[in-house]
Design a protein that fits this description.
single chain; about 210 residues; mainly beta; five-stranded mixed beta sheet; four-stranded antiparallel beta sheet; signal
């Protein structure tokens, strides 16, 4: 698994690769070998199969398997924990988590203009979206009334976000995983449903979780 970042101003490029659950390797232009470090704190990178990595503020960010935020600093080649506070997600924690333990879960991390969003999906349950408040460092759950026309586009390895797209406001669009799929699966927050429902079940069976 690798992620690439390019600085347009300096012309430098960093390639970040996840080799196992405990090591991280980086490679820069004109380098003759990879530089590999062992992580000195607990972070199960096995959870990277269930979420994506994003680049923002000159750092790489990802979520662990509980939804906590970590970042990698290319200049120092160190991983650090981001001290943010988040309400417990019922799909991963809390007294009701047993209801969802057998359902497939996936986490999505996306950044728009420096603002972080994370989304949890769990089987056919509704996606839960949180927005990070940079002043309080709290993750706040947002819904159809507070999404403000956001549209989230997801894939297995990256996610994008747009605002006020005609006929696509307050929605999440998932990737097409079959060549014969005529349309991608979406979730409409205003209507609180997946569309088309039958195709969502097929997509869930194909997700690499």
């Amino acid at each position: 698994r690798a992620e690439k970042q390019r600085n347009q101003l300096s012309g430098t490029c960093v390639l970040l690769a996840f080799l196992s659950t405990i090591t991280t390797s980086t490679c820069r232009p004109e380098a003759t070998e990879w530089v590999t470090e062992y992580l000195h704190f607990y972070l199960s990178f096995d959870s990277l199969k269930n979420n994506n990595v994003v680049y923002a503020n000159r750092r790489f960010y990802c979520l662990d398997n509980t939804g906590s935020l970590y970042f990698f600093e290319p200049s120092s080649r160190e991983w650090s924990f981001s001290y943010t506070r988040s309400p417990p997600c019922p799909y991963t924690s809390g007294r009701f988590s047993y209801q969802y333990e057998r359902k497939k879960k996936r986490f999505y991390l996306v950044v728009r203009k420096g603002v972080f969003f994370k989304m949890f999906t769990c089987g056919g349950e509704k996606p839960i979206v949180y927005k990070l408040d940079h002043d309080s460092f709290d993750w706040e759950e947002i819904n159809s009334t507070t999404l403000d026309g956001l549209t989230i586009f997801t894939s297995l390895y990256s996610s994008e976000m747009r605002v006020n797209l005609p006929c696509m406001r307050n929605s999440v669009y998932f990737p097409r995983l079959r060549f014969n799929c005529k349309r991608c699966v979406s979730y409409l927050f205003d209507e609180e449903r997946y569309y088309p429902r039958k195709q969502w079940q097929e997509q869930e069976d194909l997700c690499l979780l």
